[in-house]
């Protein structure tokens, strides 16, 4: 298991979610990605991204200065969206 840090402070939507998606691709199941953001929309975008791609996410810090996400990549199937099976 490895932990990678991704500093996305100063970037605005949609860049934090796009760069997080790109950073997750090479990771193996069990690896963690720690993401630092300042965009308030990232508290919506990044959890939605993780819900779509499979994995777990928690917000470990949230204040006026930044938001920190800890994402663990899993090998579980992608959750159903609107009742549709994953494709």
- The CATH architecture term is 2-Layer Sandwich
Based on secondary structure, the structural category is alpha+beta
Please estimate the helix content. 25-40%
Order of helices and strands, N to C? EHEHEE
CATH class: Alpha Beta
Q: Bin the strand percentage.
A: 25-35%
The CATH homologous superfamily is called: TusA-like domain
CATH topology term: Translation Initiation Factor IF3
Basic shape: globular
The end-to-end distance, rounded to whole angstroms, is: 28 Å
Task: Determine the mean pLDDT.
Answer: 89
Question: What count of helical segments does DSSP give?
Answer: 2
Question: Could you walk me through the main structural features you see in this protein, from its secondary elements to its overall organization?
Answer:
The protein has one domain: Translation Initiation Factor IF3, CATH 3.30.110.40. Strand 3 and strand 4 (about 65-70) form a beta hairpin. The chain is globular. Strands 1-2-4-3 form a 4-stranded mixed beta sheet, with helices on one face. It contains 2 helices and 4 strands, in the order E-H-E-H-E-E. Helices cover about 25% and strands about 30% of the residues. It has about 90 residues and is of the alpha+beta class. The longest helix has 12 residues, at about 40-55. Helix 1 packs parallel to helix 2. The model has no long low-confidence stretch (mean pLDDT about 90).
């Amino acid at each position: 298991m490895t932990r990678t840090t991704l500093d996305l402070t100063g970037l605005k939507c949609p860049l934090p979610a796009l760069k997080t998606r790109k950073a997750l691709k090479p990771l193996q199941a069990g690896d963690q990605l720690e993401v630092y953001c300042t965009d308030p929309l990232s508290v919506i975008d990044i959890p939605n991204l993780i819900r779509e791609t499979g994995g777990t996410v928690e917000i470990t810090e949230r204040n006026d200065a930044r938001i920190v996400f800890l994402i663990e990549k899993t090998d579980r199937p992608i959750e159903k969206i609107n009742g549709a099976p994953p494709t």
